[in-house]
Amino acid sequence: ENLFSKCFWSWSWSLQAEKKAKEHMKYLEDLSMKAPDFPIPLRPHTVWEGMAVKLSCTLQGCPPPTILQDFMVNHSMDLTAQKSITVKLIREAEMNVLLSNSRKTFVIFCLCSGQCLKPSNRLGLQTSLRSASLSLRGMHKEQEGFYSARLHTSDGVVEHRTYIYVKDASAAVLGGPGSPLQVEVSDVNKGYVSLRWQPPSADGASAVEGYYIERCDIGVSEWVRCNQDVQRMCCYPVMGLMENTIYQFRVCAVNQAGVGRPSRPTQPVLTCDPNDLFSTLIGQIRVPFPPTNVRVCELSDTYAVLRWNEPEPRGREPLTFFVERSIEGKNSWQLTSLDMAVISPRFVEFGLQKGKSYCFRVRSVNKYGVSDPSVPMTVLDWPPPPACGVQAVRDTDSSILLLWKEPWDKESILGYYLYCSEAGKEEWRTINNKPITSNRFTVHGLTSRKQYVFRVKSVGRAGNSQYSEQSEPVMVKSAVLLTAFSGAPSPASGFALLLCTASEMLISWRAPAHNGGDPIRGYYLDQRQKARSAWREVNTAPVKERVYKVSNLLEGHYYQFRVFAANISGIGKPSEPSEFFQCEEWTMPQPGCPYDLEFREVRRSSLVLLWAVPLYEGQSAVSGYLVEISQGVESEEWIPVTSEPVQDTYLKVSGLNAGQTYRLRVSAVNQAGVGMPSLVSEPITTQTKPGTREMEIGVDNDGFIYLSFESADISENNLFVWSKNYREAIDATRVRMESKPNKSTLTFNNPTKDDLGLYTVEMSDDTDISSSYTFTAEDLERLTELGWHIRNPLIALKSGWNVDISEQGGVRLWLQTEALSNAAELQLILNDREISSTPARKINFDKANGLVEIQFEQLAREDEGSYTAQLRDGRAKNQFTLVLVDEIAYQRFFVLLGPHFEEFLSWRVTGDCEMIMTCKVTNVNKDTKLRWFKDDVEITDIITDPSGVSIFTVPQVNNPLLSWANRSITLEQAYQHSQNSIKMEFDFNPKRHAASVIRSEISRLVSFRERRIDQDERTKPGSTMQKLWIEIFKPTENDKGKYILEMFDGVEAHKRSLDLSGQAFEDAMLEYQRLKQVAIAEKNRARVTKGLPDVVAIMEDKSLCLTCFADGDPDPEMFWMKNDMEIVTRDQYHISKEHKCSTLTINSVTMEDSGNYSIFVRNQYGSQTVNVTVSVYKHGEKPPPDANVMLVSLVLLEFFSFFNILRSSPISRELYQIKILLKSEDTLKVKHCSVSAENMVFQSRSCQLSGSVT
After folding, report:
1. Is 651 helix (H, G, I), strand (E, B) or coil?
2. With CB atoms counted within 10 Å of each terminal CB, which end of the chain scores lower, N or C?
3. 1220 pairs with which residues across the strands?
């Protein structure tokens, strides 16, 4: 074996030497190549006409060029090719190069690394007179990259590059990963090789979990898996190979979907020890020496690869090795190579725990014994993973330049994968399938005028890193936009001295009038002394602010300054020099000058002026600013804009003339007086630019208050800048901003009074486009209410619950709302239990017509209770309730289904002493019978007409009954008082059985001063079964006297008298006056008329609205109390008062808002207090059972009983209004029912008073 090995290596070395010699000769031949050249070119000649001419020149080149005759002396060479090529994996790619006006030239194709390509079975090169082509067959991802074509001509070398993208083939399994690439074999030894590869760019449906490694013995041609467990790292040591055997290796990626396609196989490798030819074999050595230089050549999360040198010198006997391991700090060594014989100086130790440090040592073994251990070595912890970020920069109309920051640990990075997606779609596309080694890359083939986002992840042996944060959206557009105004900015102007010390000056200046089409990137300042002509640079690096501190000046000297503005096009012309400023320390009491005057919101008749506070305050703080204005460019007449100093650093100047030119200046004021004025502003013309729009306020579709500003005339790089009071930043936690290409919206999350104020917006690169809006308390109240209605829309009701009864006894409950969409939902709840259609109860929901129906074939006792229809259509919702409860009402309801009394039994007595008894029945048919009974004995003498009226007549009452009744009469007399009259009563006590007859027979006659008293405006007689009286309204002195009552019962007369005079009259008049005053006070005193329930329960975070109505003359004062403490409007409490009405609103109630609330009303005649208990319960909890949060129990059939009362009254034809209050958790439903006693038909309408409990 040793002889074979030596022969093999000798043959291998000779082949390698021959190959290197050929490559070197080829390299020398390539170096000797030279394009055709004329060291002695053709020269111009002047000859006579008809003479023979001989033109000669010297030509050189390698290989010798072919000479062609051509009378064209100058030839221009051009090279064109495709910008980028994309090919499918395992397909062909072809790159063509066209040569225009080409002569015999050399075209060399090479990779981006500069390696020249040569023809092979997979690579074809063809060159013709005017074109050259490169064909690649059977491409793999490893061949992705830049390809260049170099054209050597007499004018030099012209080169063109293109990037060839190689896409992955279709996945082996659905959702499987792509194939790894760049599988390399390193550290080949006896029975051991080390593999490295790069992870695929496409993970598939899920992230790559690891890899399987496969090997193939060339003599067997069968692929065998090397690892049973998934290998997570992109490297793997393969052990257990046969010595002196040729192998190939490949790798497959694995994810949750399965195993992906295998990678490209490696080149064949021979497993042998490359040091065998150079080892020193000494036969006298028996027990071997220990190995040397034990080290770790590879480290991962789960294993470490150990490497060492064989003992030198070594014996002739074959060597194996023992590997021992111990935790660092413990001298407990364990043999780790028990299950295998280590024949090569390589060993892989698996099962290591991350975070621990280990020590290893190795012993040499032969047939004579085991050597001493080697020097121990320590394996430390693993390095941290890589991380990176990405930045996208506009390049051309179809490409974007990507730049990213490399990780701090560059050694473990193999390259980077790039990904792109259209902004807002989250559809990520792989850009490259071969890792890019640099930290910049230009992505071609993008759609112009579309926005893209990019991200990158680094590739290491440990696998791929996490994705970086995606870049900011960037539009695919040419990076430089050339316009007629492009170029360097115009000169700056207007220098001002803001602050001066003995050695320093603070200088400011105005911005250039034109920025050259690009924002100003910085300024350069120059200075010179008064006695010198040379300018000296003040700052070498550009400064962005227009204020600069100049140091190291000489006190008492005069200095002059100029400034240069710079943009992306370069540095503009210098400004005009400033006046000479003397360097001396300021001690004046007045403040310095304000600076940085800017204009905003220039309109036809107004503008806004902004300025910065002076840097020198003087002896006291600045208390205000004096703003002056001058009309015209040359005018020196300055007029104050305001009569009092301005407190802010901005001012809106109104009342200007449209189209006029103005200049302004500002002076600071302190206790010492007015300071020096600022630089005069640039002339400004008051005019509104076409297309100018103002800021708008409103409520969006989600009910949030917003401010929006839109402008059509803005550039792409312009950004909307929002602020408060032109300078202050807006709290980002209270608002959210959303910007579109031409519109920006500022939306308030939960606006309160803290958000009120002046809001401004302007463009970052064009402050001429600006606007403002003052957010007031009235806006807040108005828009908050509007937003609440938008967030909580209600489904409008057309007709509330109605009850229809058929002749067969069927019942139909129905209601109708506005038309609903197909997505509308209905929930019907009976007694807190959702119900659905059954054979006895059918539910229909017509969404198009908004009709909800419940049909019963026959009502049963289990159908009684509260029916609630809960409707939801998108964001809109509402609920409507009908209550069927109470046993008595339930029974009456079923009575109404058949024949029933429309008018109950009544009686009257005629003048002939006949008693007529009548009743009326309805809903009868031919089988209906009406029967009368007296003392359970049927009466037959009954008259019934077709209308249902039944009459029973009792003949004249006999005299003995009357006589007995007459003897039972006793009379008593008295008088009473009211606030409007004196009432005189005459009492009598007839027997119970005769009272009705006697009363009908008595004729009443009252006389005063022998004159009969009839009913008029001042007197009103009255009677009951036991009393007779007469009321005298508004009594006077003329009402004194004797009153006589005469009664006749048909047999004899009865008289009773009352003397209303003297002390009796005086007492009656005093009591009358007292009662009159009491009645006036009672009528006019303050009192609560309606509004508050006893108990209210409301869910936490909702709004409670308590409304109370009061009456009185004069109008009463109204106060709200909580736990006997007065409530005022502040924080979440808001009290609104109208005429005799007051409303308490509690926004976003909490558990602390529970308690006893009351309304106290008062005026000069009295007061009243009404209490209400408010109970707040949490989400998910049930409200208290006695609270008015649930529906008021309304007995529907008592309603029908009320019909009977109406029908029995003498005014049954009139229309009555019944108000039914239905209270629920979120809304109050007031249902007005119109009831006609004549036809028993009622209609209803209802309205929603959301958020209010009345």
Report:
1. strand
2. N
3. 1231
3-state secondary structure of 291: coil
pLDDT tens-digit profile of 648-701?
Answer: 999 999 999 999 999 999 999 999 999 999 999 989 999 988 888 899 999 998
End-to-end CA distance of the chain: 108
Closest to 896 measured CA to CA, from 690, 1144, 1204: 1204
Residue-wise pLDDT tens digits, 256-312: 999 999 998 998 888 887 766 455 555 566 778 888 888 877 766 667 788 888 887
| 3-state DSSP of 1142-1170 | EEEEECCCCHHHCEEEEEEEEECCEEEEE
Burial of 995 (0-12, 13-18, 19+ CB in 10 A): middle
Picking from 1144, 1155, 1069, the residue whose alpha carbon sits closest to that of residue 1108 is 1144
Contact 140, 123 (CB under 8 A): no
CA dist., res. 1109 & res. 1089, Å (int): 6
Q: Which token pair is 371? A: 């050597």
CA 772 to CA 722: how far, in whole Å? 10
Encoded amino acid at 870, one letter: Q
CA angle 282, 285, 288 (to 5 degrees): 115
Determine how β-strand 156-167 pairs with β-strand 84-88: parallel
| Inter-residue contact 462 to 385 (CB < 8 Å) | yes
Q: For tokens 């229909």, what's the residue?
A: 844
- From the list 394, 452, 391, 448, the residue with the least C-alpha distance to 423 is 452
Q: Is the peptide bond before 1114 cis (omega within 30 degrees of 0)?
A: yes
Measured between alpha carbons, how far is 11 from 7 in angstroms, rounded to an integer? Answer: 6
Kindly provide the residue ranges of all beta strands, DSSP E only, lying in 641-681, ordered along the sequence: 650-653, 661-670, 673-677
Strand 223-225 with 210-217, pairing: antiparallel
Q: Where are the beta strands (DSSP E) in 1085-1138?
A: 1087-1090, 1095-1099, 1104-1111, 1117-1122, 1125-1126, 1133-1138
Which residues lie below 8 Å from residue 764, measured CB to CB, with a gap of 6+?
717, 718, 719, 720, 721
Beta-bridged to residue 452, according to DSSP, are: 422, 474
Query: Are 658 and 664 spatial neighbours (Cβ–Cβ below 8 Å)?
Result: no
- The tokens 């005063």 sit on which residue? 1008
Judged by average pLDDT, the poorest of 203-217, 431-445, 462-476, 983-997 is: 983-997
Residue 95, Cβ neighbours under 10 Å: how many?
A: 19
Q: What is the model's pTM?
A: 0.39
Bridge-partner residues for 739, per DSSP? Answer: 744
Spatial neighbors of 1125 by CB under 8 A, at least 6 apart, are none
CB-based contact 602:554 (threshold 8 Å): no
Return the structure tokens found at 1108.
Answer: 């109370």
Contact in structure between 469 and 455 (CB atoms under 8 Å): yes
Max CA-CA distance within the chain? 182
Q: Is the dihedral of CA 991, 997, 1000, 1003 positive or negative?
A: negative
Name which of 598, 623, 609 is nearest 652 in CA terms: 609
pLDDT of residue 282: 55
Which long-range CB contacts under 8 A does 1137-1143 form with residues at least 24 apart? 1139/1115, 1140/1109, 1140/1110, 1140/1111, 1140/1112, 1140/1115, 1140/1116, 1141/1107, 1141/1108, 1141/1109, 1141/1110, 1142/1107, 1142/1108, 1142/1110, 1142/1118, 1143/1105, 1143/1106, 1143/1107, 1143/1108
Other beta carbons less than 10 A from residue 713's beta carbon: 14
Query: Please, are residues 1108 and 1133 in contact by the beta-carbon 8 Å criterion?
Result: no
Q: Which residues contact 888 (CB under 8 A, 6 or more apart)?
A: 1197
DSSP assignment of 549-592? EE-SPPTT-EEEEEEEEEETTEE-PPPPPPPPEE------SS--
